[in-house]
Amino acid sequence: MTFFLNSCILFPIRKLRIDSGMELLVKAARWEMIILVVCFAGVTLWRLLSSGSLAGILRSSDGTFSPGRVQLLVLTILTALEYLLATIHDPSHLQTIPSGLVTVLGGSQAVYLGSKAIDVFGLFRK
Q: CA–CA separation, 69 vs 71, rounded Å?
């Protein structure tokens, strides 16, 4: 009996923890998202380093500077950062997106599509 108690104190029997199905699903989804974001970042950095510029992001098809693309890029990045910080602050649930932010994003998309329509259809060309 003394040997058994000493061995349990020295080498405690650890409980095997078996994750429930939902915990396993949450862990798998978390790792999948991490892998996806890392892959997107890797491809973006690879394309940036191989081409050497972000000109395709900020310029229209004819090579001129595109303010519509710039405002869309800036607003998208700021929105993503705001959502990410809110989720990090309270990770117990996904945050709701404020309706004002959705309206601003919709306006940003409209400005971009308007500038794209002007480029494609040449409304103001001489």
A: 6
